[in-house]
Specification:
The complex is a heterodimer of chains A (about 120) and B (about 120). Chain A is of the alpha+beta class. In chain B, a hairpin with a 3-residue loop joins strand 3 and strand 4. In chain B, helix 1 packs antiparallel against helix 2.
Chain lengths: ~120, ~120
């Protein structure tokens, strides 16, 4: 019984982290238009929010939170990641916001696009 | 049946640490080699090129620099330049003594590419 609990506490949960990231992005960036002067502040706030929520989980992981905020004006962009790590214990979450369905529903003219990636690297072998 | 013993190693050796300058040089070489001056961003071919690039970077780092106790995360962003603003930030929760990152950005008239490698020490 104890062992089962230990396993849950020590492994990384993809859905939870995705939920945290989505929530943080929505809290910080819903309804804002891209503004060159404010973007530095937003991105710092976003990273801090995500990092502190991840720490609260209390799992033995090191985290790398990486955000890219881009103005939307028809240009294309592409993000690729590759890792050299323990495929069982470590994981990553990449969130692209806003998703197209969301934008149509809210009928907002979104002027920015966020791509946020979180890498969780295990500290115990 | 394999038995693994303790290695009693608590920190990386001098030569085996993550040196950002070395890694940056590798990223620079690979990016500049691929995107020579006049490359344009193409919706169809660039994603494939970038995927190849990232495998190359990781492979090169593994082969040239000896860092056996480091886990590596590599990210490459590529995009078209059309007068838009872009901001990239990362925040890390790790051991600042041994963990580090290296990044290099390449730009030409039509496109930009940013390569970032994070190195995390594990025992």
């Amino acid at each position: 019984m104890e062992e089962n609990q230990n396993i849950e506490e020590n492994t990384y949960s993809q859905e939870e982290v995705e939920g945290i990231v989505n929530k943080a992005i929505e809290d910080t960036l819903t309804g804002v238009q891209y503004d060159e002067s404010k973007v530095q502040g937003w991105i710092n706030l976003l990273c801090e929010r995500i990092t502190s929520s991840l720490i609260e989980q209390g799992k033995p992981y090191k985290y790398i939170v990486h955000c890219m905020i881009m103005q939307r004006n028809g240009a294309g962009a592409f993000v690729v990641t590759s890792q050299w790590w323990d495929t069982v214990a470590d994981g990553q979450v990449i969130v692209s916001w806003p998703k197209d369905k969301q934008a149509k529903q809210e009928q907002q003219k979104n002027t920015l696009h966020v791509i946020c990636s979180v890498f969780a690297v295990s500290m115990i072998t | 049946m394999d038995t693994l013993g303790n290695t009693y190693v608590l920190e990386p050796k001098e030569e085996e640490k993550f040196y950002p300058s070395k890694v940056k040089r590798i990223i620079q070489e690979v990016l500049e080699d691929k995107f020579k001056n006049e490359t344009q961003y193409d919706q169809n071919t660039t994603p494939i090129v970038v995927e190849e690039l990232i495998k190359k970077i990781l492979k090169r780092i593994r082969e040239t620099i000896k860092m056996p106790r480091y886990k590596l995360c590599c990210q490459v962003y590529a995009g078209e330049i059309k007068g838009q603003g872009v901001k990239v930030t990362s925040k890390c929760l790790w051991d600042t003594t041994w963990d580090n990152y290296a990044s290099y950005q390449y730009t030409n008239e039509f496109m930009y590419a940013v390569g970032i490698v994070f190195g995390v020490y594990y025992e």
